[in-house]
């Protein structure tokens, strides 16, 4: 049996000449494209009705007007009129009926008031950070469609259900790398304030990256809150994490090891460098960043210690806070120095989340602020689900993964191979 998409394609091909005539007429006579009498509206009507007729023929087993239908026990029984919303505006179509009353259209399902594409347009605009009112104005300006805010709200209501399902979906048993980062966005909580949104990204043993979870914090998270969120990930299926990479959030390294005792916790050295520069005068940034890079690119932990001792000797008196930042976190800074180069390239920084954070910021700036936590999470979820063409995407396969997984197998043994 042919699918609805195949039937639509057949109907489109059958009516190609008519469609070309419509477009040519529009060019010749300067007719409007959208609206009640628009050419594109007529074209959509033509294609939809043609597809519905093809579906009816498939349902009955004979074409319209074919004598083979005589005595078949079921036959066409006129049409019913229905207005549906499309991407070119409201379109009034005639839907064929059968005598037995059991025809179930696929192109325009029963009780549906929109054809595929309209809701997707609204959701795409919502993902870009537009408010309900802005989406309404955009549809009126670009598509000449007058829709209510309530309709826009209903179109985006499904997102909340999809988000809830996404946040509870099962996860893999073992992740090679777990990266945790934080972004601040404006959310109204009594008053508008910057609130942290924490993002967990995982790389599984096949090298596939995926956003595993998101949580809105209060700004004062500690071990108890981290335990709640990390236990949530464990309950969804994660039984082991080889390496966790984070930026030193309070209580996080300890909580990771409480949930997954065997996990190696690596602090993101890029975040460490950025934190260090906050304590230094701008004219010294270049020299400090260069010398710290020599520390975290050392081949061994002993070599890193020697290089940092020289760094401390040069800068310790002038910037003691920089030295203290590294000394307090030293055990988690040098974790990846035990690893061969293929593993280091994957885990030494959480910067693979930066492109996603950039898109988060773009969507949140357009909104100004979100009315509540749920509204913020809905938009961020849509950002994740709608990758931008020709832009780096957080999901997908990690580069040079074969080298990395072989190194991981050599280092972690059966935690990698027994799966």
TrEMBL record:
Residues 63-83 are annotated as: Disordered. InterPro entries: Transposase_mutator. It comes from the Bacteria. GO terms for biological process: DNA transposition. Keywords: DNA recombination, DNA-binding, Transposable element, Transposition. One of its GO terms (molecular function) is transposase activity. Residues 74-83 have a biased composition (Polar residues). NCBIfam families: transpos_IS256 (NF033543). Required for the transposition of the insertion element. Belongs to the transposase mutator family. This is Mutator family transposase. It comes from Streptacidiphilus pinicola.
